[in-house]
Structures are given as C-alpha cells and as structure tokens.
Design brief:
binds flavin-adenine dinucleotide; alpha/beta; Uridine Diphospho-n-acetylenolpyruvylglucosamine Reductase, domain 2; 273 residues; four-stranded mixed beta sheet
C-alpha cells in the first residue's frame, strides 16, 4: 500500500479518481475496518498536509470547524465547551483520549455512523465539501441522504444554539466511551414562553446512519402536552439570577427520559411541584 500526500484538495481529488484509493485523515476508523479484516486499498490519500482544513473559527453566530480538527482539539477548546456543550458531551463519549487526539471531525462525519452525528444533526450542522464537480455546502441531514463517495469534507459549520435551549445526549455502547455506540441519541429543545418552540432530535448507532426525527418536532403531541419548564426555571435560564455566570444556565442537560418517554417528568415528581 502506498501513501500519497497531496498538497491541495484538487490534487487529492485527482489521486482519488485514479482507482483503488481511500482518503485518510486520522486513520482511526480505517484501523478498525482493517482490524475486522476488511480489504485495504492500493493507495491511501493522506490529506493531513493540505492547508486550511484545521481549526475552529467563530463566524458570526456559528463555528466553522475544519475537517482535520481532531476531537481532542475540540474537547480542549473552552469556547466549544461553553457555546456548544452538546457537541462537547458527544465528543467526551467518543473513543478514548488517545484516539481522540488522532480522530478528526471530518472522518467521524464521513464514516456516516460516527458518534458525533446525532449531536451535529440536533445542532443543525452543515457540511462543506468538494468533489470533481465543485464545492457545495449542505445541511448535514441532507448530506447524509446523498450517495457516499467522491467527496472531500472541508469543514463542518455548527450554529450556536439560541438562548433558551435545553439539550440532551445519550450514548449506549458496549463501553461508555471507548467503542462506537449501539444507540446514540441527541436532542435540542428551544423554549419560548415556557413552551417548546423548536425541537430537533436525532438517533443513530451501530451501522445505521442517523436521521433527524422530523415528526418529533414542537407540534408532536408529547412535546405539546404541557409547558416545558416552570416559569421560575425559565427565568433562571434567561439569566435573571445568573449574575456570576451568564451562560451557565444556557444549555442544560435534560433529566433522563422518563419511562413514558417524551422527556416529561415522571408523574409522581411532577405532582409534588
Ligand atoms: C479504539 C477506538 C475506539 C473508537 N471509538 C469510537 C467511538 O466511540 N465513536 C465513534 O464514532 N468512533 C469511534 N472510533 C472510530 C474513529 O476514531 C472516529 O470515527 C474518528 O472520528 C474517525 O476520524 P479519522 O480522522 O480517524 O477517520 P479516518 O479513519 O481517517 O477515515 C474514516 C473514513 O472517513 C473518510 N474520510 C476521512 N476524512 C475525510 C474527509 N475530510 N472527507 C471525506 N472523507 C473523509 C475516510 O476515507 C474513511 O472512509 C474508534 C476508533 C478506535 C480505534
């Protein structure tokens, strides 16, 4: 197997078009494939030396994350932890620290089953990619529905959620963080006047490419049934008593889902209030 080192996206695309070649970034997912005995390509196109594919750049109310940015770099970035706590939680639940220092966000998305995908879908992320046909930017949910292949992901753009947002992230795997998920779920609920104004939920896991659960939106009966939070809690989210840390209450994890589902409090606890 030969390893090629293109200096530009155009060179990399030309090398990929040349036949039995695979793109490689951190190589950690490919390593798992080969450990399972899947065939190795004749050439690996290592995109690690292409400029402009690394880094986390704030752009207005969103972050543009270069495809070669490692999960470790994202995990250590204080702004990401503060502004995108859902993504930070998904990263902490993906692989172990040593793997996260090699694994890239582009590789996780390109694999179409990565543990970051439910969180990125809930956050309404977009994918910037190039192919021989040109460049394009698509919502991640749409990008995942396209036929795979022939594209290089350049960046993932993630909007920062609004002020009154609650989020959840659950991963069920064979181990908490060291193996890909059996089931992974992430959700964001935007609350306006104590009611659910927007909801984005996504579920994936195993070999399944996660979809956005579009029918589980704010109009779904289980989210409509009752106000999402008490007025006192909503005022706290809005920053009323958050003088010390304005953002501390901005995105709070849900309580674990009740057996009845739909994120409602178990009846006994709800009635005590
Ligand atoms: C011990 C171990 C534990 C792991 N645990 C998890 C886990 O819990 N959850 C999880 O999701 N994953 C896990 N993985 C898999 C892997 O670490 C991650 O999915 C990682 O983010 C993949 O990124 P990479 O850069 O290493 O991808 P690579 O292995 O380099 O590539 C993966 C795939 O994406 C393609 N690709 C890479 N970059 C691009 C790009 N920019 N554009 C287009 N295609 C691209 C490659 O051709 C290949 O098909 C684990 C791996 C190991 C070894």
């Amino acid at each position: 197997m030969q390893v090629l080192h293109p200096a530009s996206i155009a060179d990399a695309l030309a090398m990929l078009a040349g036949g039995d070649a695979r793109l490689v970034a951190g190589g950690t997912a490919l390593q798992l494939e080969w450990a399972k005995g899947l065939p190795k390509p004749r050439s690996l196109v290592d995109i690690g030396q292409i400029g402009g594919l690394k880094g986390i750049v704030p752009a207005g109310n969103e972050f543009r994350i270069g495809a070669l940015t490692t999960l470790g770099a994202l995990e250590r970035d204080a702004t990401v932890r503060e502004e995108l706590p859902l993504l930070a939680a998904a990263i902490r639940a993906t692989a172990g620290p040593a793997v996260r220092n090699l694994a890239t966000v582009g590789g996780n998305v390109a694999g179409r089953t990565g543990c970051l995908l439910p969180a990125l879908l809930a956050l309404d992320a977009r994918v910037e990619s190039s192919s021989v046909v040109g460049r394009r930017t698509l919502p991640l949910s749409e990008w995942l529905r396209q036929e795979p292949g022939g594209e290089i992901i350049e960046a993932i753009t993630v909007p920062v959620p609004g002020a009154h947002v609650r989020w959840t992230h659950r991963k069920i795997g064979l181990r908490a963080a060291f193996t890909p998920s059996v089931i992974g779920a992430a959700g964001i609920i935007e609350i306006v006047d104590g009611r659910v104004a927007a909801a984005r939920l996504a579920v994936g896991g195993g070999m399944v490419t996660p979809p956005r659960l579009r029918r589980a939106g704010p109009a779904s009966p289980c989210l409509r049934r009752r106000p999402a939070v008490s007025r006192r809690r909503l005022e706290r989210f809005a920053g009323g008593d958050r003088g010390r840390d304005r953002r501390a209450g901005r995105c709070l994890p849900f309580r674990p889902l009740s057996p009845q589902g739909c994120g409602q409090r178990p009846r006994a606890r709800a009635e005590r209030r």
